[in-house]
Fold this sequence. Notes:
Structural class: mainly alpha
Order of helices and strands: EEHHHH
Oligomer: single chain
Number of strands: 2
Shape: globular
Amino acid sequence: xxxxxxxxxxxxxxxxxxxxxxxxxxxxxxxxxxxxxxxxxxxxxxxxxxxxxxxxxxxxxxxxxxxxxxxxxxxxxxxxxxxxxxxxxxxxxxxxxxxxxxxxxxxxxxxxxxxxxxxxxxxxxxxxxxxxxxxxxxxxxxxxxxxxxxxxxxxxxxx
Length: 159
């Protein structure tokens, strides 16, 4: 659709030709379209990624003075946690609720298979958050894990 009074399309108004140049140049003050941005350094040919959310503010990323198994699990969990934090906020809960509903609705071994990722995810997060929880939080997490174990056991025919 031509812009009013110019005889040119509206898209052509975003670009101004430089003297003697073959490629259109961007007008000053207009932001680049995300698809027109150049890839980041060191990522030849890779698409530019969306801006990342900053990590939450906190005193420690790891449990202070953790030793042994806890320290190893926290260090191995750091990268997956950062990855999960960068996903859209609605994605992980939606997937977990979907798997849990499938486990509740399907009454055979396939329902048990659907519950296992939810059980693993909840157990992993409960283990990581355990040192910072009060008694009520710990009791609720243990109750949720027990419910998921019993649900999976009934779906697999163990109970």
